[in-house]
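Protocol step 4 of 6: structure prediction from sequence.
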Amino acid sequence: MTTALSSAAPSGAPARPHKAAGFFEKTLWIANPFMLSPAVGCLLLFFIIPMFATAAVSFTDWRMGSTEAVHFVGLSNYIALWHSEEFRKSVANTLLMTVMVVPVSFFLSLALALAVRASGRLSQFWQTIYFLPVTASLVAMAVVWQWILHPEVGFVAVILEHLGYTGNVNLLNDPDLVLPTLAFISVWQMTGYFMVIFLTGLVQIPREIYDAARVDGAAGALTLFTHITWPLLGPTSFFVMILTTIKTFQIFDIVKVLTRGGPEHASEILLYTMYQEGFSFFRMGTAAAVGTIYLAVMLLLTWLQNRYVGGRIHYGFD
């Protein structure tokens, strides 16, 4: 016992660095690339390389299934799209769909999150109810919506008949109503997902901040929301805004199942145009050009949101 105590280092003496720790610190620059390699490999294989390959194909006249040689055509595919009335209609429909879906999904999901947060013991129940459309297959639900919106035997037709309206309202075959109808279905499907994200942000706000505000004289739910909840939800709101925009641009299933871009291209959007060009007309060069334009628009919108909205967001509670 005495020998062990006498051989121990004094309590105030600095501890010697472990040889293994020093070895790992010296070789950290070697270890980091190997640890990141799986993620980097997946990113390159499934995102970066396909992105550049798509951009390269957009400058060719490749037709899938054709035995003819592939030629470099420069900007011919982009010029053809620019002069295509159908493509311009598709871009306009996509932007209009975004204008309709993004603000409605954003504020509706926020309102639902606030309501669920305040529902007490029933919050788990309401979370499940509102999240159910997210878990359902959109293709299967599109078939259900096709029955609901049937102009003669659908649920909407029955309600209109009981309200005294005798004419047939074919929402999916009316050029003026088809896009708002698809926007409504998209909002119904996405709102529960964004509600959960807002709920996560609401949970992160400390209760002490609300208590301190009440002590300082803040009274009423509206005052607490405008001065505490909304500012502290800035990062979450910004994330939901970007994600809503991306998901709106990715709408494809309901268009493919319900309308196939009709009537008269009234519901044709960018992803469906790309699908048509590539897998119906087999013009892969033109489809790649549509995909490249789609990617450029998404990057531009994300940059604009980050530049003009993200710069005003305050992170943290300091």
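Step 5 (inspection) to follow. The two ends are 53 Å apart (CA to CA).
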